Recover the amino acids of this structure.
């Protein structure tokens, strides 16, 4: 089995869409997935992009991805890397592709001068946590994730101060 | 009591440092706070910054801040806003400054075309949650936050694949 992992190239937005939609399906938010391949390529190949992506190919077929964005920590006063989506298609799981993607991402983080990578996972996702715990990452539990979006954002922005 | 909230200006890095260090102290990570005022200003006033900050002044004195960075969601294929630090100095708390900062941030998010703002808070921080719940934001609990940093990042990047 040949696995190749490399940065995404122009024209591969449709493959990325399949990979990130698979993750949305597994996490039960496919109904909220509205992005198009063009949206993703526009962000990835912008002049000064804030996002990046590695794609894993298994025997030449897209099998997984690690999609990240630039982030920033005030405590360190530096840019860091946030891993937004780590996806391996069900048919390609249990072959070490997730770990290989994470490791290539760690190499890329170092090349870009990011001192750390961080990400979130659902408390119920024991399979992912098993992988993450092997990387040497530390974790905190019990975070609460807030989201003020769309109509709620508009209402609050326009509320009486 | 006069409260003014506006974007940070060059030269106000030292004030921002005081505000974000106060948050680090309240959350018990001041020992990990290594940023300087210069680090923060360099990021804020870069040619194409990924960060931004609102400062609240109370009777002309810096009283709080909302420091954010650009983020991205694959599900929507769009940039969104991440609130990294919301800080109000202890002496200025309970005067509505936190809510006022959040509301100005919501206005700024709309002006910049971000469809949502998201942020994290500690499960134990009931005081902050009381404020957040009033904004109309929704939340998920039980997230696990992973961080692969510094020596651990280097070890993993250099590990045998």
């Amino acid at each position: 089995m040949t696995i190749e992992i490399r940065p995404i190239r122009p024209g591969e937005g449709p493959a990325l869409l399949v990979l990130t939609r698979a993750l949305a399906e597994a996490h039960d938010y496919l109904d909220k997935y509205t992005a198009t391949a063009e949206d993703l390529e526009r962000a990835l190949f912008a002049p000064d992009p804030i996002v990046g992506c590695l794609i894993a190919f298994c025997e030449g077929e897209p099998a997984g991805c690690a999609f990240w964005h630039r982030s920033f920590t005030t405590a360190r006063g530096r840019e860091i890397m946030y891993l937004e989506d780590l996806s391996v298609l069900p048919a390609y799981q249990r072959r070490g592709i997730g770990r290989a993607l994470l490791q290539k991402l760690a190499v890329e983080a170092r090349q870009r001068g990011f001192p750390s990578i961080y990400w979130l996972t659902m408390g119920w996702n024991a399979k992912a946590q098993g992988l993450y715990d092997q990387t040497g990452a530390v974790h905190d539990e019990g975070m609460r994730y807030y989201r003020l979006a769309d109509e709620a954002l508009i209402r609050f922005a326009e509320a009486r101060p």
